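Backbone-to-sequence.
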């Protein structure tokens, strides 16, 4: 959203700086004075929360890398060394491990908020696509990081996931051997995963910059879903939204602290606290909780190759969402039928996540197949057809209109 430049240097130093490197002007115009729709609710605070956790994960990860040893004979022991011998090592490791889980909690809320309010629709297609790229990079980073402690579940999880690439025709075997660096998961694999786990967060940070840039071109979406056209429809980002985001972040950090100090292992698998043994297969191999919906889709398909295709397709379909939803109305507030389908879709995703933690047998597989079919039907059938047939509610004339109407009713 373009807006008038309001920055005025007030000191000699700031004027000197502004004439040579206008970085203060850039920050003022794009952060402090950035015009933001006045009706954003607390679901819009998760962008700031995600930025905090990205920085937190990078900092704690760098410190952990100073003490971690990427060798199959030393990796598990080096993690124990961090926990027991490094000053506050236990705090840094728990902050990193639980931070990854809460990072995904925040990103899932961020994604579902975008789905509910239609934040992927024109002119925000590139913004949405960059968000899906960030999500993919996050999943890859989390998977590589999950292997590093070299626990029992880590190694067998890596074995299962990397073997999936072998099902891809023509290039699958080559990709799998490249990931392994050997004839099976071993020392070369651990070194590669450590290198990629260290590199990818910086790539995420780069895409986040593009994501924010793409956000600032059309401006924020909002709960009503109409464009802010007048000055009275917007507020400067600071102090209104900096304080609101700060309050939401504080509440989220309280939850973060509760996990770190009172239940640090709640979101980890108990088998991963035993050193990896290639000769003993865990009874039930599962990935981390944030990957289990896609793991359930993978196992719901009897054919291995088609299961891999379905698992990746479940993510790739998100790239095409701006064109699959044919409705001209963005916000689900004015789409009564879509609102109901949206909550069914959320329930389907949660159920798939739970099924991904259960044994791949009996009723679990049957239900997973039904829910997998619904997952794809939501994007490929429901959204295209609903946009053409649904009768939507009238949209307000401006962002201020609903607020002013409430005030007028209260006065009368």
């Amino acid at each position: 959203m373009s807006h008038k430049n309001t920055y005025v240097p007030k000191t000699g130093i700031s004027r000197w700086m502004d004439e040579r490197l206008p970085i203060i002007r850039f920050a003022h115009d794009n952060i402090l004075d950035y015009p933001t729709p006045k009706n954003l609710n607390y679901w819009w605070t998760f962008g700031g929360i995600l930025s905090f956790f990205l920085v937190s994960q990078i900092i704690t990860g760098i410190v952990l890398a100073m003490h971690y040893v990427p060798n199959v004979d030393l990796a598990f022991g080096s993690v124990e060394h961090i926990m027991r011998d490094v000053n506050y090592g236990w705090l840094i490791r728990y902050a990193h491990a639980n931070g990854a889980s809460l990072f995904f909690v925040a990103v899932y809320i961020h994604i579902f908020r975008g789905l509910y309010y239609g934040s992927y629709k024109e002119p925000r297609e590139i913004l949405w696509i960059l968000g899906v790229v960030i999500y993919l990079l996050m999943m890859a980073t989390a998977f590589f990081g999950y292997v590093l402690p070299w626990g029992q579940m880590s190694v067998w999880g890596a074995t299962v996931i990397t073997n999936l690439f072998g099902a891809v025709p023509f290039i699958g075997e080559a990709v799998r051997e490249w990931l392994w660096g050997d004839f099976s998961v071993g020392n070369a694999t651990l070194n590669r995963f450590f290198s990629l786990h260290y590199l990818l967060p910086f790539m995420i940070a780069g895409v986040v910059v593009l994501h924010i840039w793409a956000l600032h071109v059309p401006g924020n979406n909002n709960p009503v879903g109409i464009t802010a056209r007048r000055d009275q429809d917007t507020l400067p980002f600071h102090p209104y939204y900096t304080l609101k985001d700060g309050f939401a972040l504080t509440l989220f950090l309280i939850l973060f602290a509760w996990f770190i100090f009172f239940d640090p292992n709640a979101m980890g698998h108990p088998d991963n606290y035993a050193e990896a043994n290639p000769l003993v297969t865990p009874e039930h191999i599962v990935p981390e909780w944030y990957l289990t919906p896609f793991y359930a889709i993978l196992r719901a398909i009897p054919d291995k190759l088609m299961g891999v295709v379905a698992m990746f397709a479940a993510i790739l379909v998100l790239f095409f969402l701006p064109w699959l939803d044919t409705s001209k109305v963005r916000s689900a507030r004015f789409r009564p039928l879509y609102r109901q389908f949206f909550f069914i879709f959320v329930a389907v995703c949660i159920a798939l996540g739970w099924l991904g933690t259960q044994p791949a047998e009996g009723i679990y597989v049957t239900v997973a197949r039904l829910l997998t079919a619904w997952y794809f039907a939501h994007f490929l059938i429901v959204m295209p057809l609903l946009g053409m047939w649904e009768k939507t509610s009238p949209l307000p004339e401006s962002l201020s209109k609903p607020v002013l109407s409430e005030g007028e009713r209260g006065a009368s």
